[in-house]
Design brief:
heterodimer, A: about 210 residues, mainly alpha, 3-stranded mixed sheet, 11 helices, B: mainly alpha, 7 helices, elongated
């Protein structure tokens, strides 16, 4: 068995992310860097359950519970955030936003697809080894939720203005896209790769 | 409202995440999570429960304080939460849409993971 989700186009996903971020419930917590753990726990009242070795075994920092009552979080990553490990904090922020995306977008599909035995779970988990549409949708939601387009554009424009005096071809310099993404990423509390993906998906600076 | 739910609602009323609350008061997040989810029962030591009440913003002598202490006493008297049935376990399994490249799972790894999931939903008093 596998979890199949219905097709949602990019605009639909982005609209859902924008609507969630600007909803009344998130008022006061809608500006980046968004505290997604606060959103999950205090606003949505989900249980956050530290789970040992989630990352070691699954290479995931977070995973939604099948009954949608909470999110498992890798115990080490959770503790690393407490110790102000910024790199882990940024990774965990995206992972949580990704799980919230499944919670918001894929509720019906998840409820309909819950495994009925551990044997079925094992078969199902070992089959889930391809990047699929559910993951794409959750990544797109998480990206737009954490990196609002208007603020990304503003940050990008600021960097452009700073670099304009160096000549018009600065965007062609090797490594410049990565450099700018790295400069902007802390504003959103995410790692540089997330900004590079947003550059691409939002059409600001498509990948080669 | 059961004791664990009461503890969680008081923490959330303070607008604190599990991580923030535990960091501030020196609790282990995994243990506190078990308490809030009603997996672990509160201790028999009233002084500890009173300290928790203060940490959760309650004031001695108020009705809320007394209710908190009463709920703790009731929870202590309950039978420990039973080990997860297979049906309950299915609800608590994580949703994995994919494995990350290089982390393909075998049956052993998944069985280990299922074991850890059972542990976080099992009272400490059942564990060795």
């Amino acid at each position: 068995m596998s979890i199949k989700v219905r097709f949602r186009d990019d605009e639909t996903i982005r609209r859902a992310a924008d609507e969630f971020r600007t909803s009344d419930d998130l008022r006061g917590f809608d500006m980046p860097p968004i505290d997604v753990i606060y959103v999950a726990e205090v606003i949505l009242k989900l249980d956050v359950i530290p789970l040992p070795d989630l990352f070691a075994v699954q290479h995931k920092d977070a995973a939604l519970l099948a009954d949608l009552t909470g999110i498992y979080v890798d115990e080490d990553a959770y503790l690393a955030w407490e110790k102000e490990n910024r790199w882990v904090e940024r990774r965990l922020r995206f992972s949580f936003a990704h799980e919230l995306a499944h919670y918001i977008l894929h509720r019906e599909e998840l409820i309909a697809s819950r495994p009925v035995s551990t044997a079925e779970f094992i078969t199902w988990a070992t089959e889930q080894n391809k990047y699929n549409s559910a993951e794409y949708q959750a990544d797109e939601f998480a990206g737009r939720f954490l990196v609002p387009l208007d603020i990304l554009r503003s940050e990008y424009d600021t960097q452009c203005q700073k670099l304009a005096p160096t000549g018009t071809a600065w965007r062609e310099i090797e490594g410049m896209r990565e450099y700018i993404a790295k400069k902007i990423a802390p504003r959103f509390g995410v790692n540089r790769q997330v900004i590079e993906v947003r550059f691409d998906r939002e059409g600001l600076w498509p990948a080669e | 409202m059961r004791f664990g739910e009461l503890v969680k609602s008081l923490r959330i009323a303070q607008k604190k995440t599990l991580r923030q609350f535990c960091l501030e008061h020196g609790h282990d997040p995994s243990n506190w999570s078990k308490l809030e989810r009603g997996i672990n029962r509160p201790p028999y030591d009233d002084r500890t429960v009173a300290r928790w009440a203060r940490q959760l913003g309650l004031k001695p002598g108020t009705e809320q304080w007394q209710d908190f202490m009463d709920q703790a006493a009731l929870a202590r008297g309950e039978l420990p939460k039973p080990v997860l049935s297979d049906e309950e376990l299915m609800k608590k399994l994580p949703v994995f849409f994919r494995t990350v490249r290089g982390a393909e799972l075998g049956e052993k790894e998944l069985q280990d993971l299922i074991g850890k999931i059972k542990e976080v939903h099992t009272p400490d008093e059942y564990q060795g």
